[in-house]
Automatic annotation (TrEMBL):
UniProt KW keywords: Aminotransferase, Transferase
InterPro entries: Aminotransferase_I/II_large, LL-DAP_aminotransferase, PyrdxlP-dep_Trfase, PyrdxlP-dep_Trfase_major, PyrdxlP-dep_Trfase_small
EC number in record: 2.6.1.83
NCBIfam families membership: PRK07366.1 (NF005613)
Family annotation (PANTHER family): AMINO ACID AMINOTRANSFERASE, ASPARTATE TRANSAMINASE
A GO term, aspect molecular function: L,L-diaminopimelate aminotransferase activity
Name of the protein: LL-diaminopimelate aminotransferase
Essential cofactor(s): pyridoxal 5'-phosphate
């Protein structure tokens, strides 16, 4: 057989937390285990009826069956810009400041190709979402992981970034509410990040999929600021957008997906919004890779963004109920974890016996109990000693999962 030589950039991509757990789940299923899968943050809730109807109606329209180029996405871009302005009070030009994406993961993975030259650094959250690192590796860039520690509220400390690394850095990636730690960030933190990136000529990327999955008021600092120009003008969101700290869009780009707020993960629809030059550059990369998804899916997304929002509120209530039930069950068995204010995740510190081997913990847990969770180490070095639970089942099944873990833990 021919010895095929592959690019070196593939080496860091050999391991992936979701692929690793998928193999572990397959082994458990083959052994006859009934698996309760809490490892993947894929919402089990359905998309709203009016969204499905918009897509269904599109199927009968022959004009939707062909390739969809940028100009054909005008209606979706206008809906996204209006949704954003209503939610955050930020004016957005749908022609130059919005780009449709096949999910926000596409955008975060492709943007480094437009920003980094080989050897340039990207400053990433550690732990963080795997595609953020994957995009940097594909661009032949280097990663400087910014550790997220509980004592800092899982926020990075910019002053700790070494000067030689900063001199070679081109971009910083943030994401709050955060996956996997479920931490939130106040507007003052985003203002600090914008000033830091302006000072050091960095592109500031914010991945923002959990904007709506916030369970309670998060404090005065989120909803107000010492700078009146940066106040939330229309506080329909409990957490701030990065563009509220950078209303001129000087260095910032933000990614939103309809996967979480609107339960449309399988439809693969999101968008980038922000600095016009960054949008243009990402559009150039996208044009070399694909056109756009089926127009009917964009019609469904327009219906989601412009139609009734009761489904969003219902999803938030559902995940809050699951959070409360799961946290209570963990506390009953002596696993005391903090209650998150956002996302669909529980970030749990492991018992001391497993504090240095989260991968082995998760592998043995699914093997012996059928409960599948994600190892913290899969999200970065600073994630070691933690596991992430995804609240993608109803409370009775979540409580059964906790019951199964009792004997394993003790």
């Amino acid at each position: 057989m021919t010895n095929i030589q592959f690019a070196k950039r593939l080496q860091p991509l050999k391991s992936n937390v979701f692929a690793d757990m998928d193999r572990a789940k397959a082994v458990a299923l083959a052994a006859g285990r009934e698996v309760i899968d809490l490892s993947l943050g894929s919402s089990d809730l359905p998309a709203e009826a009016h969204v499905i109807e918009a897509i269904a109606q599109s199927l009968h329209d022959r004009s939707t069956h062909g390739y969809l180029l940028f100009n054909g996405t005008q209606g979706f871009r206008e809906a996204a810009a209006n949704w954003y302005e209503q939610k955050f009070g930020i004016k957005v030009d749908p022609q130059t400041e919005v780009l449709p994406l096949i999910g926000s993961q596409e955008g975060t993975a492709h943007l480094p190709l437009a920003i980094l030259n080989p050897g340039d650094f990207a400053l990433l959250l550690d732990p963080g979402y795997p595609s953020h690192a994957g995009g940097v590796y594909l661009a032949s860039g280097q990663i400087y992981p910014m550790p997220l520690l509980a004592e800092n509220g899982f926020l990075p400390v910019f002053a700790d970034i070494p000067a030689p690394v900063l001199a070679q850095s081109r971009m910083m990636v943030l994401s709050y509410p955060h996956n996997p730690t479920a931490a939130i960030a106040p507007l003052s933190f985003f203002q600090e990040a914008v000033a830091f990136c302006q000072q050091h000529n960095l592109v500031l990327v914010h991945d923002f999929p959990y904007v709506d999955l916030v369970f309670q008021e998060t404090g005065e600092e989120v909803n107000s600021s010492a700078n009146p120009k940066s106040k939330i003008q229309n506080p329909k969101s409990l957490v701030p957008s990065i563009l509220q700290a950078d209303p001129e869009k000087s260095v910032s780009i933000e990614f939103f997906t309809l996967s979480k707020s609107y339960n449309m993960g399988g439809f693969r629809i999101g968008y980038a919004i922000g600095n016009a030059q960054l949008i243009k550059a990402l559009r150039q990369v996208k044009a070399a890779v694909d056109f756009n998804q089926y127009r009917g899916i964009l019609n469904g997304a327009i219906a989601a963004l412009t139609g009734p929002q009761a489904g969003v509120k219902s999803a938030v209530t559902t995940f809050q109920g699951r959070r409360d039930a799961f946290i209570s069950a963990l506390h009953r068995i002596g696993w005391n974890v903090p209650t998150p204010q956002a996302t669909m995740y529980i970030w749990a510190k492991l018992p001391s016996l497993w504090s240095e081997n989260s991968v082995e913990f998760c592998t043995q847990l699914v093997k012996q109990t059928g409960v599948a969770v994600s190892p913290g180490a899969g999200f970065g070095k600073s994630g070691e000693g933690y596991v992430r639970f995804a609240l993608v089942h109803e409370p009775p099944l979540l409580e059964i999962a906790v019951e199964r873990m009792v004997e394993f833990l003790h």
